[in-house]
Fold this protein.
Amino acid sequence: MEIQEKSQEDTQAAIVKKNVFSGIQPTGIPTLGNYLGAMRNWPLLQEEYHCIYSVVDLHSLTVRQEPAALRKQTLSLVALLLACGIDPEKSLLFIQSHVSAHAELAWLLNCYTQFGELARMTQFKDKSAKHPDNINAGLFCYPVLMAADILLYQTDLVPVGADQKQHMELARDVAGRFNGIYGEVFRIPEPYIPKEGARVMSLQEPAKKMSKSDENPNAYILLLDDADTILRKFRRAVTDSEAEVVYREGKDGINNLITIYSIVTGKTVPEVEHEFAGKGYGDFKSAVGEAVAEALRPVRETYADLLKNKDYLAEVYTKGAEKARAIAGRTYGKACKKLGLVLPPRP
Ligand code: ATP
Ligand code: LTN
């Protein structure tokens, strides 16, 4: 009887288990911002949800990449995601270009997305300003490919940083529009943005988000920076002319450091303020640097081990893509059928 009840519970849990999808571009080594805003949360979700994570290499082509570097960064990111705690027995991990349905569905969705909607995207405006000599059609349609990524897996939740909110709104609008014409093809996804760390700021210009493409390397912490580099960058972090470690409007630099310290140590903001009451910024910056270096140490060490085992990495992303292809193919086939495309005969 007990066993029967337990198995019923398991079946119900399986039925209600929600789907999670997220992606990260192989455009370089991820920063502390990518980690605290997104990657750190991915392994935490894998017990409760069906999680699918992807290294979105097609997205990274919207900005010019050096082929050898892209290849290296893609494999390195697979290793880094595993080092952060993604367990391939629990989650799917794959490389976006290995599942052709992403590019295929993006084309269909392009035809249901308006020029005006894409022209409003702030990421498009920022990146066009940054690369005025390469404002390509892929950069413009980037959010549609992201919508395809998410919608292929009937995703409920998308763990991302706050900067992706506008793209999430677009994915929801396009899905709703398609469903409105053709019936329920796509599940409408929700963004899953952490309360803390959703927007980690630059260490040099704390009003700007921390970005791996910043020209000044002191502005960001990379996940693979060694302890000395991390300490040095935090010691150079821009703060203000006061000397009080308190979270208050107008103290962007200190607020950012308090947020980072609070996440990596698990202490609340008042606890952090109390710990550094009466101490100077120098002590505080060193403490933040040490805490971050310590938090990233296991990631760095596991990553180095994983990278030595290329066969294992290949096995993980090959199996991941096989499973992803099966799920994505179902949604893509359904969308094609609804649109009136003649489906090829089954092999
Ligand atoms: P790029 O700088 O190359 O344009 P990016 O770092 O903005 O890239 P991705 O690498 O695709 O973009 O980002 C992966 C995840 O990291 C996304 O969920 C994004 O929201 C999150 N993220 C990026 N920067 C930050 C930040 N400064 N703070 C918090 N989360 C961030
Ligand atoms: N645009 C995202 C990366 C991304 C993504 C996704 C995130 C591409 N496809 C699907 C979540 C779900 C970015 O962070 N720059």
User: Anything to note?
Assistant: The pocket of L-tryptophanamide (ligand 2) is lined by residues 21-23, 25, 56, 59, 146, 149-150, 158, 160, 164, 167 (CB under 6 Å). The radius of gyration is 22 Å.
